[in-house]
Specification:
Blueprint (H helix, E strand, L loop, with lengths): L7 E9 L2 H11 L3 E6 L2 E5 L8 E5 L14 E8 L1 H9 L6 E4 L4 E6 L5 E5 L8 E3 L16 E10 L2 H11 L7 E6 L15 E7 L6 H10 L5 E2 L5 E5 L5 E5 L1
Parallel strand pairs: 1-4, 5-8, 10-11, 12-15
Antiparallel strand pairs: 1-12, 2-3, 3-4, 5-10, 6-7, 6-9, 7-8, 13-14, 14-15
Length: 249
């Protein structure tokens, strides 16, 4: 269906307990730029592009709690320029693992909320080999990532086949994000997204002239129980893990 060729992945939305603590990680360790803040939301991009690429949402303890057992979010994979990644490592940032590929270095870091982020610049993750040290010189003029994209997300799920089938059905086989599903067990793997500090939303973007009503009708015909606001500006569907997929203009 041609409808899905005009849909792109925009940003994951991750609930966190402390916005400032997590923002420091995304800015200093991962080199992202804070574009704007709106109520509990913080929007992040690269330094040469204002396009929102990552979103975190602060959710205080009186209404949200830590995940019991395994989190839904296993890993976020980010693609960025290898020269930028090298400069982050040259700062002496804290990492979990460091890798090297044909083009340069890559690394995995863990956020204060316990979310694993892999950032690399190779043609594929399979080209990476773990190393124990780096030999780099810091450039004092370096500010952060020039740009980046969230290339993929690995989710912990109870039934990988069901999750895979859902996304293939949702996007008619044209999924705009590389999704992997790891079979896992845990009491919160299908909990409502507002209850725990975990991945909450996968936001997709459409053009201003996109027919969201047609998209809503398509999802209804597939039996996916979509929601659409009164202005027909957003359509929302929930996956088997109760992660919301938003389609917005």
């Amino acid at each position: 269906m041609s409808l899905f060729k005009n849909i792109t992945f925009k940003s994951p939305v991750i609930r966190v307990e402390e916005r400032d603590l997590n923002l420091a990680f995304f800015q200093k360790t991962l080199g992202m730029k804070l574009v704007s803040e709106e109520n509990a939301l913080a929007f992040l991009s690269g330094y040469q592009s204002s396009d929102i690429r990552f979103t975190i949402e602060e959710s205080p303890t009186y209404r949200t709690r830590a995940v019991e057992g395994t989190k839904k979010l296993n890993q976020v994979v980010i693609k960025a320029a290898v020269d930028d990644i090298a400069q982050l490592l040259a700062r002496g940032i804290e990492t979990k693992r460091i890798f090297k590929g044909p083009k340069g270095y890559a690394f995995e870091a863990v956020s204060p909320q316990g979310d694993a982020i892999l950032i690399y610049g190779e043609s594929s993750v399979e080209e990476l080999e773990e190393v124990t040290s780096v030999d780099l010189v810091a450039d004092e003029s370096f500010k952060g990532l020039s740009d980046f994209v969230v290339e993929g997300i690995m989710l912990n799920v109870t039934d990988p086949d069901a999750s895979q089938a859902f996304y293939q059905t949702l996007f008619d086989g044209q999924v705009p994000l590389h999704l992997q599903f790891k079979k896992s067990q845990g009491p919160d793997l299908a909990i409502e997204p507002q209850v725990t500090w975990d991945i909450e939303i996968l936001e997709c973007q459409v053009s201003e002239d996109f027919d969201l009503v047609a998209l809503y009708d398509d999802f209804n015909a597939k039996g996916l129980a979509p929601y659409m606001d009164k202005k027909a500006s957003v359509v929302v569907v929930s996956d088997p893990s109760n992660i919301e997929i938003w389609f917005t203009k």
